[in-house]
Each structure stands twice: as structure tokens, then as C-alpha cells.
Amino acid sequence: MVGNSVVCLSAKAPKEMGSNSAEKFYRIPEGKGPHSVGCTDLMTENAAEGSFLRLYYPSCNATDNEEAPWIPDKEYYQGLSDFLNMYRVVGERLFQYYVGSVTCPAKPNADFKPGEKYPLLVFSHGLGAFRTIYSAICIEMASQGFIVAAVEHRDESASATYYCKKKSVSETEEESTPNMEKEWIYYRKLKSGEEERCLRHKQVQQRAQECIKALNLILKINSGEEVMNVLNSDFDWNKLKDSVDTSRIAVMGHSFGGATVIESLSKEIRFRCGIALDAWMLPVGDDTYKNSVQQPLLFINSEKFQWADNILKMKKLSSNDSNKKMITIKGSVHQSFPDFTFVSGEIIGKFFKLKGEIDPNEAIDISNHASLAFLQKHLSLTKDFDKWDSLVDGIGPNVISGTNIDLSPSQALLSVCVSRKSWLCGWLKAALIFRAELSSCHKEELLSE
């Protein structure tokens, strides 16, 4: 009886406090740098082979308080529900109830801030994620003077994504009917008996190509070439002309996105360095380990996610190279990097490993500061990010050099690969099941709202 009461209270608390979601209680942190931040979406071509990304950028100070929606379409709720093996009708309602009004602190389509050349950072999301849920990291980088292109991958590793295709309409309908519609692509589950490494390696190849394609797209805009955005947007892309410092380009990603960073570095020398956040190494191909990643690379790991075999693969890639670093954030978990860590309460967050023992804001600050210091060194930036150089060496509160994982031969043999759902939101599956198992009266009330 006590347990059921706690569940009902936690589920109803936001509504009883006058909110339809957690938005009033928990917020994605604002950027701490000197620049205001804007964001806009860019999609090219009416086919899955085009590019799709969210651009975060230094912006002129906006006069209104509008912020971008965090999860922009209900189909993303459906995709997350599929990914987590939830009924869509239940999952969609729960996501809408819990995070439906959450926004990210970036101004949609705000005017781009001209006057200087900005380094470019391409960001790759994790398995089951999509372009918007690492906004805390991307916004911080943009506030510090980076243009950030957060790619939404179409390799069927995102919970959901889409492209715009032309509708087939008759001539009489053509004038009154929009001629574009969204074609949704949802997460592809492993088939029975399918070997995961083969699928993930194929996907990471496509992901790397999508990162390179995003790089080419931004550089094309930078050179003044006209690019057709198939999405309706008020953003003036012409203002990006000559705004990118083409000699200062890096790639960054989390989990499956960390593997994508490594593959992208191996394929594209214009990426001068990379940052892999809690990388999942299974998708990385054998050829990549054969001295094909020459650029500097920073591994930033959580304390609770990694295992011996995964760490040994990182070390195999970075052995005897002083420009390849590894640090671990003490008290952190795999979900200390995506935004979900900021929009959940303390009890649910810790119970489902969405939050670690360390404060989420401190964890993301350590990660961001180490990243900025690393980028300053290897992109030759003239900033003051070198004040955080010690973090890159694993020196400071709540950070260690290398790993906390026991790498002894016996432990390496015993290490077991983490379940494929755990690196994005295994915690979320449990959380949604937890919420779905409310009393029948509460479920009826929630679904009838």
C-alpha cells in the first residue's frame, strides 16, 4: 500500500503543482559562455539519403522568451515507445505527460551572430536517440563560440527520424494541399538470430558518412552556395557565409555516437580531433584499430557504464599516443550525458540510473570543460579554455585519469557486453513500466485526459 501511494504521488505531483509536465521543476541548463544561442533545423533532399540536422549557433540577443521545444513531434514519443517495447498509446501519453512541455534554452531561428569565424563541431547521437536530446552539451558549445551540427541519423538506429517526400495529389487538390509529407523511419530491432556486431558495424559506417555529409553541407553554406532547406524555416542561411573557420573542425558523440566519432576520424582528415563520450566500441571495425585514427581523441567515460572489454578496445586504439586521452567522471552514469538527466526528479532519476551520485550539472560541467580544453589545444583556439587543462589529465574533483575498471586478464575474460538498450535508456524502460503499472483507476484517468 505504501509503495502504491508513492507511485501515485510521484506521477501526479507535476499536475497537482499546476503543470502538465516536469518542465517547471527541472530544466535543461543554459549555456554558460558569452554568446546567446539559437537553433534551427536543416533538411536537404526529399529522400532518406539527404542530410538532417539541428544547428546550434551563436546568435544575436533575442527580444522574446520563446524557447525551442525539446522533443518536437509526437512520433518521437512513438519511436521511443517502440525502442523500449512499450505500447505506443501508453508510451506516447506518458512521454507527453512527463516531458511534453519541456523546452531547451535556445531560441528557434534566432538571427545568426556575424563578425567572426567560428569552429565547427559535428555531433552524433546515441542508439535510440535523435538530434535534440543532447541539447545541454550542444548549447554549451555554441555559447562558447562553436557552430554545432547535431546530426539525426537515418541508419535505423534513432528511435525515430523522418524525411519529407512529395505527396501524390491530383491537379484539383494541388493548390489547396501541402505537397510535402513526413515519411517516418523508426528504430530497427535485431531480428531473431541476427548477430548484433554485423548490424552495428554496418550502421556506424552509414553514421560516419552522414557526419561527413553534414560537414560538407555546412562548408557548402559557408562558401556561399545556396542550399535548399525542405523544412519551413525563417532562418537566413546566407548569414552563415564565411562564418566557419574551415581549419578548425571536430567531431563529438555519445555511446553509439562515440563509435561514430572514431569511424568519422578514420575516414575524414578534415576532422582535426574527436571527443567520444562513454563510447560503445562494439560497432567499430577491426580495420579502424590498425593505426587508421591519426587525430587526437579524448575519451570521457562515466564511472558506472564501462566494462573491461570495452575499455581495452579504447586502449588498443589509443596506445602509445600522447594525443589520445581517457578520463572518467566519478559518480556518473551513462545517462549523465543526454538531457534526460536534467528533466527527471531525484528519486526516479537515481532509481533508474538516470542520475548518478554526482550532481548532473557538475558532471556535465566536467565533461564540457574537459572537452573545451581539449578542443582549444588541438584546434589551436585563442580562448581561455586552457584553464581546464588539468581535467584532460584527470586532475580535479570527481575526475580520474584513465579508468576505474579492473583490466586484469581474469576480469577482461569475465566482462560481459552491456545489453543493447542500456546505453541510451534502459532506465527509461523500467521507469515507463513503473509508471504504466499504476492502479487501474489512475491509468484510466491519465489516458482519458
TrEMBL record:
EC number: 3.1.1.47
GO molecular-function terms, A-Z: 1-alkyl-2-acetylglycerophosphocholine esterase activity
Catalytic reactions of this protein: a 1-O-alkyl-2-acetyl-sn-glycero-3-phosphocholine + H2O = a 1-O-alkyl-sn-glycero-3-phosphocholine + acetate + H(+)
Entry annotation: catalytic residues: S255 (nucleophile), D278 (charge relay system), H334 (charge relay system)
GO biological process, one term: lipid catabolic process
Record family assignment: Belongs to the AB hydrolase superfamily. Lipase family.
Name of the featured protein: Platelet-activating factor acetylhydrolase
Organism: Anas zonorhyncha
